[in-house]
Amino acid sequence: MMDNNSSLQPKRRCEYPSPNNEDPKLDNPANSGPPAVLMLMTGAMSSYLRAGGLRGSQQLINTCVLDAILAAIHICYIKHPIVKSLLESNCEFRLIMCYLNCENYNDAKLLWLRKLTRLPNSNQIDIAGSVKDHLPRFAQLVCAQVDYRQETPNDHAIYETTLSKFRAFGNVTALGKDESNPALILVDCDVGDDRNLVSPLVPCVEDDLNRTFELDFLLLGRERHMVMCFSICGIWFLYDDDPAKPAFQRFNYEKDLQDYTIYLGGYVNKSEEYYHGVPETGAGTMPFSSGSKQEESCSSGTVEDLLLTFNHLQCASPPSRSGSPTDDVQMSSD
To answer: Mean of the per-residue pLDDT values for the chain?
Structure first.
C-alpha cells in the first residue's frame, strides 16, 4: 500500500555477506537484453515478485511500492549492460540481483529493507510507504542529484550539461560509476505542492553532450496501489504484484497511462550502451520515432516473437491466486 505521508525510520549500518564472485547464479539469466526479459516474463507469469513475503514466521504486508521498485531495477538490469555493470559494482545491489535472478524474492526484499528501516518483532511487518522512502537505498550509486526547487549547482559540469535537461520533470538523481557519464537517471515526479507545475515526462532526452537517455520504466500509483510499466523494443508492459492478476500484462502507453499518477521515471543512457559515446546531433527532448536506438536494438523478428509468445502465454495461463490475504491489493483507499 502506498503512504504518501510516511517515512521509514533510518537504521544504522549493518553489514551483509557479499556473494562469491564466481557464483554462476549471478549470471542467470545468462543472456541479456529483450530475449532475457521475455524468458523472465514467460517463465514467471504467475510467480514473479508477488505481494507480501516472509521473515521467518513474520508476514510482510503492503509491499507494492517495494515490489515495483525491485521489479523496475531488476528488469532494467537484465535489459541494459550499462545498468548491470553499475549495479554489480556494489556488493549489496549485486546480491539483490542474484536473489531476484534465482527467484529468492523474500531475501531480496529483506536485504533491500535492511538499510532503510528497523524491522519490528511482530506477526505482521507493514511495509506501506512512498517511493521517496526507498530512494535513499540508491545512495551508494548516486553520482549527482538536484531537487526541482534547488538552484543548479556549479561544482560539476554534469548539472548544466545533463541534469538541467530533466529539471522540469521533478527531482533528479543520476546513478553511475562516474559523475561525467551516468548510466541511469531517476526522476522523482512527486514534488509536493508543485506537482501540477512539473512538465510531463518525455520518451527521450538528449543532453548537451549529444547523449541520449530513453525512458525505460515508470512507477505508477492508483488508489494507493503501486505498479510499474516498462518498455521492450518500444512495446510497453505492466508489472503488478497483485496475486490475483498475471505479473505481466500489455500496457497501452498512450491510453492506459491516463489512469495513473506517475511517481518515478527511469531514463537509461542509450548512447553509451549502443554507440559507446559516439556523439550525435541535436539537444534537448525528442519524441520516439521509428529510428530510435531502442527500436534499432531490436529486430522485427524479436518484436513479433515477443508479442506472439506473450499473447499465447496470457491465453494459456490463468491468473494465480496464491497471495497472502493481507496483501496491499486488499486495502481500500482513504
So the answer is: 79
Lowest mean pLDDT among 58-67, 112-121, 196-205, 253-262: 112-121
Cell 545491489 appears where? 93
The domain ranges of the chain are 24-300+311-317
Per-position DSSP letters for 145-210, written without gaps between them? EE-TTSPPP-SSTHHHHTGGGTGGGSEEEEE-SSTTS-SEEEEE---GGGGGGSPPP-SEEE-TT-
Statement: residue 321 has pLDDT above 70 = no
Pairing of strands 124-126, 58-61: parallel
Q: How many CA atoms lie within 13 A of 10 on its CB side?
A: 5
Long-range contacts of 213-216 (CB under 8 A, 24+ apart): 213/185, 213/267, 213/268, 213/269, 213/270, 213/271, 214/267, 214/268, 214/270, 214/292, 214/293, 214/294, 215/265, 215/266, 215/267, 216/76, 216/79, 216/80, 216/266, 216/267, 216/268
Q: What angle do CA 118, 11, 106 make, to 5 degrees?
A: 50
The class (CATH top level) of 24-300+311-317 is alpha beta
Contact 286, 310 (CB under 8 A): no
Sign of CA dihedral 41, 44, 45, 47: negative
- Is residue 5 predicted with pLDDT exceeding 90? no
CA distance 161 to 22: 39
Name the grid cell of 103: 527467484
Residue 331 CA to residue 334 CA, distance in Å, equals: 9
What are the beta bridge partners of residue 262?
Answer: 220
Q: What is the DSSP string of 291-310?
A: T-HHHHTS-HHHHHHHHHHH
Find the DSSP H helices in the chain.
Answer: 34-43, 64-79, 81-88, 91-101, 105-114, 131-134, 158-161, 253-256, 270-275, 293-296, 300-316
What does the pLDDT look like over 228-287, one tens digit per residue? 999 998 899 999 999 999 999 999 999 999 999 999 999 999 986 544 433 333 334 333
pLDDT digits over 12-43, tens only?
333 444 444 444 444 444 457 777 888 888 77
